[in-house]
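**User:** Here is a favour to ask of a fellow structure person. Please take any protein you like and set down a full record of it. No explanation is needed for now; the record alone will do.

**Assistant:**
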Amino acid sequence: AWINTSVSQNTYIAFNQTRVNRGSDFNTSNGIYTCPIGGVYHFSWGAIATTTNTVYRYRIHINKSQLSDV
């Protein structure tokens, strides 16, 4: 998934585009992935910044609770 708009600071990033979305488990309206079955899932992401003087922080949430601060 990816986003094709700018992002404001201190907001959720809702990725609104996908290439593959088998089962439609990823909602492009709100950026939430709903696991179809219980198990272990692996998520990864990358980011590109256009400035060298800015610090970017990413927080992972599970069920709206913060899991980590990257």
